[in-house]
C-alpha cells in the first residue's frame, strides 16, 4: 500500500503522516520498499506475540474527586495537585454526579472575572452524559471507548449499594489514556 493510499484512507495529506510512517518503519511495525509501498513489518508479523487480557481493575488509578459544591478555583488546584486533566465529581457517598476537565475550567474562566467562585456543579458534565468504565472491562475496549468519544479519562464505576440502579454509580477509580499508553509500552518490551 502506498503512502498516498494510507493518507487517503485516513483523510489526511501524505506530508501529514510522513513522520509517523517513518517512525513505524524504524520500529519495525512497517516495512517500506521504493516503488512498492508499505507492508507489515517484523513486529506485526510475529505469530508468537501474545496480547494478554488486561482488565481495568488491574491498572486503574485512584479517582481524584471533588464535590459538586467545590469552587472552580478549588477544582483548578485539585487538577494541578493531582497532575490530571479530569476531576470526578461525586456526592458524599461516592456516587458519580459528573466530571470536569481542564478544558471546562478554561472555557468558564476566560473573560469571566467571577468564575473562580462558581461551584463546579455549574460547569461540569452531568450524569447520564458521562462515559464510564467498569473494573471488569478489557483495557482495549476502554481504549476504543476513549478514542470513539474523544475522552482522556474515564471514571471506573460499580453499581451503588444494593439497589443496582443504573442511574447510581459508585466511583472506585479512574482510567486514563496515559495509563493505557503505559500498559502498551510495558507489553511491547
Give a brief description.
With 189 residues, this protein is α+β, with helices and mostly antiparallel strands.
Describe this structure in words.
The chain has 189 residues and is α+β, with helices and mostly antiparallel strands. The chain folds into two domains: 43 residues, Arc Repressor Mutant, subunit A; 129 residues, CBS-domain (Roll), CATH 3.10.580. The protein is built from nine helices and eight strands. The strands form three sheets. It has a four-stranded mixed beta sheet. Strands 1-2 form a two-stranded antiparallel ribbon. The radius of gyration is 21 Å and the shape is globular. The two termini are 28 Å apart.
Question: Can you give keywords for this protein?
Answer:
alpha+beta; four-stranded mixed beta sheet; 2 domains; 189 residues; Arc Repressor Mutant, subunit A; CBS-domain; 8 strands; globular; 21% strand
Amino acid at each position: 500500500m502506498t503512502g498516498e493510499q494510507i493518507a487517503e484512507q485516513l483523510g489526511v495529506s501524505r506530508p501529514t503522516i510522513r513522520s509517523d510512517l517513518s517512525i513505524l518503519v524504524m520500529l519495525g511495525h512497517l516495512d517500506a520498499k521504493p516503488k512498492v509501498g508499505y507492508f507489515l513489518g517484523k513486529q506485526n508479523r510475529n505469530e508468537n506475540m501474545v496480547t494478554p487480557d488486561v482488565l481495568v481493575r488491574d491498572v486503574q488509578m485512584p479517582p481524584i474527586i471533588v464535590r459538586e459544591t467545590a469552587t472552580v478555583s478549588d477544582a483548578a488546584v485539585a487538577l494541578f495537585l493531582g497532575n490530571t486533566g479530569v476531576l470526578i465529581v461525586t456526592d458524599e457517598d461516592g456516587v458519580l454526579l459528573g466530571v470536569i476537565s481542564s478544558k471546562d475550567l478554561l472555557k468558564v474562566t476566560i473573560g469571566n472575572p467571577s468564575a473562580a467562585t462558581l461551584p463546579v456543579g455549574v460547569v461540569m458534565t452531568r450524569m447520564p452524559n458521562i462515559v464510564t468504565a467498569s473494573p471488569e472491562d478489557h483495557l482495549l475496549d476502554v481504549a476504543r471507548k476513549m478514542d470513539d468519544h474523544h475522552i482522556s479519562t474515564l471514571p471506573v464505576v460499580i453499581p451503588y449499594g444494593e439497589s443496582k440502579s443504573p442511574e447510581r454509580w459508585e466511583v472506585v477509580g479512574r482510567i486514563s489514556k496515559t495509563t493505557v499508553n503505559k500498559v502498551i509500552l510495558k507489553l511491547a518490551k
